[in-house]
Each structure stands twice: as structure tokens, then as C-alpha cells.
Design brief:
about 475 residues, alpha+beta, FAD/NAD(P)-binding domain, 2 domains, 6-stranded antiparallel sheet, 23 strands, about 20% strand, globular
Length: about 475
């Protein structure tokens, strides 16, 4: 390996997902000298084709094959591309629920976190990424969820997303590579993709970043301020590798999720469906239901719990099939730890008996909903379990999901570096500055104080917007 000359900047931002992109954009637009470092490559938002195996290989860390250790394990995915998770997710958007904000203010002593405090930041981000409902009727899979909810007298809603729609109703994802990153570049922000930051070190009143580029070259960066936005796993991993460990990586939280493949007598799926935006919040915050990615590769993967014959059914019948989920907020008890000579950290999340009971309850309710919507068979993510073919079988589902047979997953991780003024528990102050580390900040979902119970990127964006402006106001 060779070492290049050091780069010098006022502010280095590590990670280009919503937290990093918004931070870099606002600081650059304020005239600051910003360098944005991203481990992943620069790729167009719709290349490779969304929700395919090629996309997972190109844009997800480890091709999407990452899990927390525990019983059961929880499979999770992270974007690894310029723009981060915004380039691969469904774009569904929620503001943080008011009761969640109130709990974080109270329990973690977070300042500036009322609804009134965050309103201008939510609004600015929503305008920038065109948050809106989709025009026209929802896809058939979403209508099935709505019909089932209506039959049971449960509340259902279409969730807005960050898409821009043309006159014909065709939508384009307003990811970071389509919005804040071009703004940042236009304001003079330098972007260095294909660059993994290995560690940080404080030297002579500045930060020294050691990074490795895709070709193996070691790059040194010197900056007065660093904003780390590598996500709820890799932000604490980088900090811990750098000797910053106080309250870092000890409180990882997530949304454990169980899935069901539903088979309907009529067609509900098609090549252009994407992720339907219908959700059921009747039992929130304990449980939420929604639609998932249902392309043939994802359907085949979901059916592996039920054997080769069930998986083979996808080839001919995928247009009649869709994946749905039940989700519960997890607890801030996970751990992120680094290991010598290993690039990826060790992630542990002990799923509690209470969470398994909530998910079992959610699985039963979701199956009831899908049968009420007309499903002819259901395949829950329970290894070796039989397909359900009538509503009466739902009562036989376990009251607590079995640890050895349950397949759980999540796309929502957070709270590994919680913010707040209680230095006994919090890694950063209320605005993301790491306690006891001058010039070092966190700018992603790591800052959460727990699980929000909704898609988290609206919260990430608002916090990054608020914290960047606060940094500028402090001079």
C-alpha cells in the first residue's frame, strides 16, 4: 500500500447518507470548506435496477448479508454507496411521533427537541426531497392491506415518500444523490467516494483521519471538525476504533420485524410495483404493519423457510404473491464492538421474550388482516412451519415466536451514540457534539435515544438539519 499526500479541510464529513449529505450541504452553502468521504462507490440512483440482486451486490454492505448475533439473529441491511440508504430504501417518510420526542427530552435530557423546535427543519427537508403522497390509485398489494384493515375496522394510511412525480404519475426517488449532494457540490464541497475512514486521531488541536481508498492507497485527511455519519453500526465502530468509547456502541436499538408471504387468487404484483406505501398503525407504537419488497428474488428468499416446493411456487405464481411485515420497537440494549484485524464490527442484539411475544401477536393480527383481504394461503417466516390456508389456523400460531425457528430482519437501526445532556448515559450533547471531544460530532441515526416506531429517515434529516445550523450559529 502507498500513502498519498494529506488532504486538508476545515470540516470532514464521514458518510453520505441523509445525515452526512445534509450536514455537508448546509455547511458548504454557508461558505465552509467541506470534504465529504464515502466508503461506497458513486452510482446512479436507478442503476442497477432497484430491488434486484444486482442492486444488493452493488449498493448494500456485504451484499445485504449482515446479521446481529443473538437468538434469534436479526438480519439487517445497510446502504454502501454515495447517498447511503437513501439510494436503496423505499423513501417512506414519517415525522418523529410527538410522544417519542417527549420521552427523549425527559429521559435523556435532550434540549431543542420539541415539535416547535423541529418544525422548520422537518419542513425544509420535506421541501428539498419533495415529500408527498403518490398520485393515482395505490398498487394492488397495498389495496389488499387497506381492504383487510377496513374489514377489521382498523386504521390504515398511505405513507408519503420522497418522490417527485411527473404529469403522467411516474415517480423518481429524491435520494441524496438527486438533492442534497448536488447542492453540496455546487457550493464547493469536495466529494471523495470509494474511501473508507479507518480511524480518527486528535493531533495539535485538529483531527487526523486515516482512510483507505478502493485501490488500496492510504489517504490522510486533516480537519478542524469531523462529522461522523456512517450509520448506527459503523459510526460507533469508527469511534471505538479511534479510542472514543464513552457511551458509544452500548445502546443499539432497532425495529425487529417478522414477515409473511401472502398468496391471493388474483394478481397483486408486477414488475413496477416497488414497495407499496400502505401501513396499518392501529396498534402503534407496539406494532406496525406494512408492505415489503416483493420482487421474485425477495419472494424466493422469504419462501426458503418452507422448503423447496414452496420456493418453486414463486417462479410461476409470483404475480399473485406479496410480502407483508409486522414490526415492533426494540430496546436500546444492542452492542457494537470492533475486533482486531476485522473490517466489520461485531453486532449483538438480544431479542427479549417480550419482543417475541409482541411479534407473535403482530404475526397473528397480520395473518387475520390478510385473510380478511382474501388471501388463500400465508407463509409466515417460521422455519419448517406449515402454510396457513384458513383464518381458523391463526389461533394455532405460537404466543411467543420460537427462538430457534423465527427469521427476523430489520432495515431500521439507531441509538448507538445517544444524544443528550446526561453525560452518564449520552455519547453526545443535544446537538451531536461528542462529549469530551472538541470538534467531533455525530450526524446520523446513532443520535436517537431509542426506537422511534416509524421509518427513521425523516428524523435523521431533521436532526442533521437542526444540528448543522446550530453548529454554524455557534461560530
Amino acid at each position: 500500500m502507498t500513502t498519498s499526500n494529506a488532504l486538508v479541510c476545515e470540516i470532514a464529513v464521514v458518510g453520505s447518507g441523509p445525515g452526512g449529505a445534509i450536514t455537508a450541504c448546509l455547511l458548504a452553502e454557508a461558505g465552509r470548506d467541506v470534504l465529504l468521504l464515502e466508503e461506497g462507490a458513486t452510482l446512479p440512483v436507478d442503476t442497477p435496477e432497484p430491488y434486484t440482486l444486482d442492486e444488493m451486490t452493488a449498493k448494500y454492505r456485504n451484499g445485504g448479508l449482515t446479521v446481529t448475533l443473538g437468538a434469534p439473529k436479526v438480519a439487517y441491511v445497510e446502504g454502501r454507496v454515495l447517498g447511503g440508504g437513501s439510494e436503496v430504501n423505499s423513501g417512506l417518510y414519517h415525522r418523529t411521533p410527538p410522544d417519542v420526542l417527549a420521552a427523549w427530552r425527559r429521559d435523556w435530557r435532550v434540549e431543542g427537541l420539541s415539535e416547535a423546535d423541529l418544525e422548520p427543519h422537518f419542513s425544509a427537508c420535506e421541501r428539498a426531497v419533495s415529500v408527498s403522497p403518490a398520485p393515482g390509485p395505490p398498487p394492488a398489494a397495498a389495496l389488499k392491506m387497506r381492504e383487510g384493515a377496513q374489514a377489521l375496522d382498523w386504521a390504515s394510511q398511505e405513507v408519503p415518500r420522497w418522490y417527485r412525480y411527473d404529469a403522467a404519475g411516474a415517480g423518481a426517488r429524491q435520494s441524496m444523490s438527486a438533492t442534497f449532494l448536488p447542492r453540496a457540490a455546487a457550493a464547493g464541497c469536495r466529494v471523495q467516494s470509494g474511501t473508507r475512514v479507518l480511524r480518527l486521531r486528535r493531533e495539535a488541536g485538529r483531527w487526523r483521519l486515516t482512510a483507505r481508498q478502493a485501490d488500496g492507497t492510504v489517504l490522510e485527511v486533516r480537519a478542524a471538525h469531523v462529522f461522523v455519519a456512517g450509520g448506527a453500526v459503523h459510526t460507533p465502530a469508527l469511534l471505538r476504533r479511534s479510542g472514543v468509547r464513552r457511551n458509544v456502541g452500548n445502546t443499539l436499538s432497532l425495529h425487529p420485524t417478522v414477515k409473511v408471504v401472502a398468496v391471493f387468487p388474483d394478481a397483486v404484483n408486477g414488475p413496477e410495483m416497488g414497495v407499496p406505501a400502505e401501513q396499518v398503525k392501529q396498534f402503534a407504537p407496539t406494532l406496525s404493519f406494512g408492505c415489503s419488497i416483493s420482487t421474485p428474488p425477495y419472494l424466493a428468499l422469504a419462501m426458503t423457510d418452507h422448503g423447496a416446493a414452496a420456493t418453486a411456487r414463486v417462479r410461476e405464481g409470483w404475480r399473485h404473491m406479496a410480502i407483508y411485515y409486522a414490526m415492533t420497537p426494540g430496546r436500546p440494549v444492542g452492542r457494537v464492538r470492533t475486533l482486531p484485524r476485522l473490517a466489520d464490527p461485531l453486532v449483538r442484539y438480544p431479542v427479549s421474550a417480550e419482543e417475541l411475544r409482541h411479534l407473535a401477536d403482530g404475526l397473528g393480527k397480520l395473518c387475520r388482516l390478510l385473510f380478511a383481504a382474501g388471501a388463500e394461503s400465508l407463509y409466515p417466516s417460521l422455519a419448517g412451519g406449515p402454510a396457513l390456508t384458513e383464518a381458523g389456523q391463526v389461533a394455532a400460531l405460537p404466543a411467543e415466536l420460537p427462538r430457534g425457528r423465527t427469521g427476523l430482519m430489520t432495515v431500521h437501526l439507531f441509538a448507538s451514540c445517544p444524544m443528550g445532556e446526561d453525560e452518564r448515559r449520552c455519547a453526545t450533547d443535544s446537538f451531536g457534539r461528542v462529549h469530551g471531544a472538541d470538534g467531533l460530532h455525530v450526524a446520523d441515526a446513532s443520535l436517537f435515544c431509542g426506537a422511534p416506531g416509524v421509518n427513521p429517515q425523516g428524523t435523521v434529516m431533521a436532526l442533521a438539519h437542526r444540528n448543522a445550523l446550530h453548529f454554524l450559529e455557534q461560530g
